[in-house]
Design a protein that fits this description.
The complex is a heterodimer of chains A (222) and B (492).
Chain A (H helix, E strand, L loop, with lengths): L1 H16 L3 H21 L5 H30 L11 H25 L5 H20 L3 H22 L5 H29 L26
Helix pairs in contact in A: 1-2, 1-4, 1-5, 2-3, 2-6, 3-7, 4-5, 5-6, 6-7
Chain B lengths: L5 H15 L3 H24 L14 H27 L8 E2 L2 E2 L4 H20 L3 H19 L5 H31 L9 H6 L6 H19 L7 H8 L2 H27 L2 H26 L5 H22 L2 H31 L10 H4 L1 H14 L6 H15 L3 H26 L3 H4 L9 H19 L3 H13 L6
Helix pairs in contact in B: 1-2, 1-4, 2-3, 2-4, 3-4, 3-10, 3-13, 3-19, 3-20, 4-5, 4-10, 5-6, 5-10, 6-8, 6-9, 8-10, 8-11, 9-10, 9-12, 10-12, 10-13, 11-12, 11-17, 12-13, 12-16, 12-17, 13-15, 13-16, 13-19, 13-20, 15-17, 15-19, 16-19
Classes of the chains: A mainly alpha (222), B mainly alpha (492).
């Protein structure tokens, strides 16, 4: 379990530092695989349920979603992330700082409660922070989608390492929701590419209250 | 006794069917039939007893009754309005799925997603298990995103993208909250439901519950449109088709609110937690009121104005629940009244948009002459939404304010009044600009007749809000009081 957690942490750091979109998608796929293996490593009560969950998780997060994102990337012709709001090196340093913060939070939590797997919980928090960082600092809609996926992975890892026992139906439902969410984002990536000729979400500025001069209702289609 | 699962499964199935249907007419008939069936089943469920409260997954208590009734009523109203709306906005009329090819740009997607949306909201309201409720609330986001993108314009695309990303991230944080809440349980607590946890409140670990509440508040608060996390709301509500805006504002925000209420219900059972949770709710509530007050002044777009007004009312709800006591009952009444009135206003704004083809306030002049019926209702809606005396919003806001004064929280009371006044001034200027004035000044407007279907929902909803303000029927009063008692409040 700790090995997987360490690998997840490394992949997240690589994600933060890499400018190539294909690389980030590969990293997310890798994370999906590792997360799929995670339920099998802990204390397993119903082995069949754990296997179902693991298989579904790998199929969706490790294979299907990365494949779809890769397709969206090819269609839009975007290869690299343009210079983010914070440079890649700085993002990576921030990432390391966030890792320290996650470790600190978990250490604090351990004072109040015996945790099943502190390393894994640290990873969970770290992935959540990484996802948020990606969402905030990157400009392309596709990297924001990836950021959201990393965030979801982090929540998933947190849940597993806390050992909160949900029934398998709830877990599957959550997985399904996340899948459909990313799927919708994927579809919208195509549309954004078609409508705006770019997938830079930071150039979304038609709807804003702060920029009233820009307010001309060019295509109110109602 | 009707099985509550019906009203979740049924719209799901009919929604899938309507994806494949070829005939526009049949799809519309299905939509209306589903709406009225849902309403009928909801009434039956709400009349039934609360025996299901011991169950693991879904159950009916007073909170469920209240919010389920709102969802069902609003969906019925919006689906009636959608009949006309779809005629005026013909997209592709074929089925959405032929073979494996997906034609997104179609009325079939609208009709189907409306029904998925209904199913998701029913699930979110009915589920008492925290995990299942999360699934339901996330599903509402997914089902409503295609609805916001119905017009396929750049603006609606931008709005839908913001909505999907912000709400998904928010709700992902709420999932963290669900995990932390699970950590707060000890072996004494059998069920992962609010009722089950209240029963064994003494055995919960308070520290984890605190963390969980913060995550719930931030996560579902994003969806509910509480102030620092409200950015998606004005965009989504103003770009969505009017019947969808009505649903989003009146029903969806309440579903997210229910998500917060469920964990508040647990917090209210523990004295050490109540003050903590209440303070946070009041803080976010007042912040929402402030933000909406500022942005409503000089708002150039009347649909955005309505959207900010939703932020304001969510702020009122949060403040009301935070104040506790009878203010909780006031907030419950306010939730009903706000849903009915805001839905009417959004539907009316659809009529105005159809006539003037502009969302800019300065383009709309002489509404009373151009659209007499809509104009009068628009004014009535203004009085209702700002809490003028005969309407139910007056009673609820007054109840909240009274509690604020009784508990001597002077700062809260003063800010509450001040921001309400600010909103009132902002809305007064906007509504008077729109209804008065000669329409010739504004130039062109389309000659549209106001059809009965466009007006019946606002008329009915506004008169409900009026009646509730004068006289609370017993079943409404019982539901509101029951819900308030569940949340540790007092009767109205």
């Amino acid at each position: 379990m700790n090995t997987i957690a360490a690998l997840l942490t490394l992949s997240a750091l690589l994600l933060l530092g890499s400018s190539r979109l294909r690389m980030t998608i590969k990293m997310v796929a890798f994370q999906g695989f590792m997360l799929g293996l995670l339920p099998l490593t802990g204390k397993v009560e119903h082995i069949s349920m754990a296997v179902i969950l693991s298989v579904c998780s790998i199929a969706l997060k490790g294979i299907l979603l990365p494949w779809m994102l890769a397709k969206a990337m090819d269609k839009s012709g975007a290869r690299r992330e343009i210079e983010p709001f914070i440079s890649f090196g700085a993002t990576m340093l921030t990432g390391i700082a966030l890792l320290a913060v996650s470790g600190w939070i978990v250490a604090k939590l351990q004072n109040t409660q015996q945790l099943a797997s502190p390393v894994c919980l640290t990873t969970g928090f770290f992935l959540v922070f990484c996802g948020l960082l990606l969402l905030i600092t990157r400009r392309k809609a596709i990297t924001q989608t990836i950021g959201f996926l990393v965030l979801e992975n982090g929540v998933f890892a947190t849940g597993l390492s806390l050992g909160s026992e949900f029934s398998v139906f709830v877990e599957l439902g959550i997985l399904l929701d996340v899948f459909v969410g990313i799927f919708l984002m994927g579809i919208m990536l195509f549309h954004i590419d078609k409508e705006f000729d770019h997938i830079d979400a930071d150039r979304f500025n038609e709807l804003s209250d702060l920029d009233l001069a820009h307010f001309d209702s060019e295509d109110i289609s109602e | 006794m009707t099985n509550p699962w019906i009203i979740i499964i049924f719209p799901l199935i009919t929604g899938i069917i309507s994806l494949f249907l070829d005939s526009e007419r049949w799809r519309k008939i299905i939509l209306v039939v589903v709406a009225f069936t849902h309403l009928f089943c909801t009434i039956k469920i709400c009349n039934g007893d609360s025996s299901l409260i011991e169950s693991t997954w879904i159950g009916v208590d007073h909170l469920t009754r209240l919010f389920l009734m709102i969802v069902s009523l609003l969906f019925t109203g919006s689906s009636l309005y959608s009949m006309v709306y779809l005629d005026n906005h013909p997209h592709l009329n074929g089925p959405a799925l032929t073979g494996l090819k997906f034609l997104g740009n179609s009325n079939a997607v609208f009709v189907a997603c409306m029904q998925f949306f209904l199913a998701a909201m029913s699930l979110a309201v009915l589920s008492i298990n925290f995990g299942l409720q999360w699934i339901g609330i996330e599903a509402t986001t997914l089902a409503s995103t295609p609805l916001i993108y119905f017009h396929r314009s750049r603006r609606s695309l931008e709005a839908a993208w913001k909505y999907l990303i912000l709400c998904s991230v928010g709700i992902a944080l709420a999932l963290m909250g669900v995990f932390f809440l699970a950590m707060a349980m000890t072996s004494h607590v059998q069920l992962f439901t609010s009722a089950g946890m209240v029963l064994f409140a003494g055995y919960l670990k308070v520290e984890w519950l605190k963390v969980a509440f913060i995550f719930f508040l931030v996560g579902y608060g994003t969806k509910m449109g509480l102030a620092p996390m409200h950015n998606w709301l004005p965009d989504a509500h103003s770009e969505a088709p009017s019947p969808v805006s009505a649903m989003l504002s009146g029903a969806l925000l309440n579903c997210a609110f229910l998500g917060i209420l469920r964990i508040y219900q647990v917090c209210a059972a523990i004295p050490a937690m109540t003050a903590f949770a209440s303070d946070l709710l009041i803080l976010l509530g007042l912040l929402s009121l402030a933000v909406s007050g500022i942005f409503i002044l000089h708002q150039p777009d009347y649909k955005r104005m309505l959207a900010y007004s939703s932020v304001e009312h969510m702020g009122i709800l949060a403040t009301g629940v935070g104040l506790g006591g009878a203010a909780i009952a006031g907030a419950m009444l306010h939730a009903i009244a706000h849903s009915l009135i805001k839905a009417s206003l959004f539907l009316l704004s659809g009529n105005i948009l159809a006539a003037y083809s502009s969302k800019r306030i300065e383009d709309v002049k002489g509404l009373l002459k151009v659209l007499p019926a809509s104009g009068i209702l628009w004014l009535a809606g203004f009085l209702a939404i700002t809490g003028a005396p005969p309407f139910a919003t007056f009673i609820s806001e007054f109840a909240i304010l009274r509690v604020a004064l009784q508990t001597k929280s002077w700062a809260t009371a003063i800010m509450f009044l001040l921001f309400l006044l600010l909103v009132f001034i902002g809305m007064l200027t906007i509504f008077s600009q729109m209804t008065l004035g000669k329409h010739s000044e504004a130039g062109e407007h389309n000659e549209v007749k106001e059809s009965l279907l466009q007006l019946v929902t606002p008329v009915v909803f506004l008169s409900f809000a009026l009646i509730l303000g004068c006289y609370l029927p017993d079943f409404v009063r019982n539901t509101i009081d029951g819900a308030a008692l569940l949340l540790g409040g007092r009767v109205l």
